[in-house]
Amino acid sequence: MAMNTEPINLTKALASFDEVYSPRIVARMNDYDVRIAHTEGEHVWHVHQDTDEFFLVLDGRFDIALRDAGGRETTVTLNQGDVYVVPKGTEHKPSSPGGSILMFEPSGTLTTGDHHEGELPDHVDSTTGHEM
Amino acid sequence: MAMNTEPINLTKALASFDEVYSPRIVARMNDYDVRIAHTEGEHVWHVHQDTDEFFLVLDGRFDIALRDAGGRETTVTLNQGDVYVVPKGTEHKPSSPGGSILMFEPSGTLTTGDHHEGELPDHVDSTTGHEM
Predict the structure, then answer these.
(1) In chain A, what residues touch B28 (CB-CB under 8 Å)?
(2) N or C: which end of chain B has fewer CB within 10 A?
(3) Distance (Å, rounded) from C-alpha B40 to C-alpha B17?
(4) Across-strand partners of B71?
(5) Which residue of A has its CA nearest to B76?
(6) pLDDT single digits (tens) B33-71
(7) Domain range for B94
(8) Does a structural domain hold residue A29?
(9) Is B15 part of any domain?
(10) How many structural domains does chain A have?
């Protein structure tokens, strides 16, 4: 089988879809996905019990509210070029005034976690990531 | 233990060291590292038998020569914002006229693979990644 020798450009990939909070899988390595998403508005509180989640802000701003074991909330503000890892088992809620992110997580990881709080708003896609 | 709520900025992290082909670990997630490196000059032919390797070009240009099972060589040219995965078991040799990259790979993965060809030049660091 011929090797794939075509890189994917993230700017072009982001321009190929409009939906927010609806990640596309741009690459797979081992049993992990590299996903990209547009971000705008409030996501939902959710938790991944079994995996950390890596974020890189490609453009704009992306905030991650975190809730510790004692129920205290803190918000991490990420700007372009910032990276952050949400540890497994940590409740978190993303929000954004507009931007785009790259995520690294195990294939099959659901955007809304093992469980989430409240109703899912229309602009939040509960998915394990879409093909490009 | 208090949660880490400080993101790391990749531009600042890259500005904090000068060495080429000497990756710094900017984040860990599960048993994977997120590493960044400056790139310039020729790396060495090497192979990772047990893991894929993910590359994102942050700045400049980064080329990856690949050798297939039949010994045929192809070069993938990556510019800023391009992503590419070298499949496990594929012999490859990076080179660059200058730039910087982000990599995902299992913690412990050696920059020069399970084996490499020829002498290691002085500007290539054989390492599993340095702390920031």
Answers:
(1) 52, 85
(2) N
(3) 14
(4) none
(5) A5
(6) 999 999 999 999 999 999 999 999 999 999 999 999 899
(7) 23-103+114-131
(8) yes
(9) no
(10) 1
Mean pLDDT throughout A58-70?
A: 96
Contacts of B84 in chain A (CB under 8 A): 7-8, 27
* Separation of alpha carbons B83 and A7, rounded Å: 6
Interface test with B, best of A3, A16, A24, A48 (most B CBs within 10 A): A3
ipTM associated with this complex: 0.94
Provide the CATH number for the domain around residue A35.
2.60.120.10
Q: What percent of chain B has pLDDT over 70?
A: 98
**Residue A92 maps to a domain:** yes
Whether residues B27 and A54 touch (CB distance < 8 A) is answered with yes
Round the average pLDDT of chain A to a whole number and report it: 94
Task: Classify residue A43: in a domain, yes or no.
Answer: yes
Rounded to whole angstroms, the Cα distance separating A59 from A52 reads 22
* pLDDT tens-place string over residues A86-127: 999 999 999 999 999 999 999 999 899 988 988 888 899 899
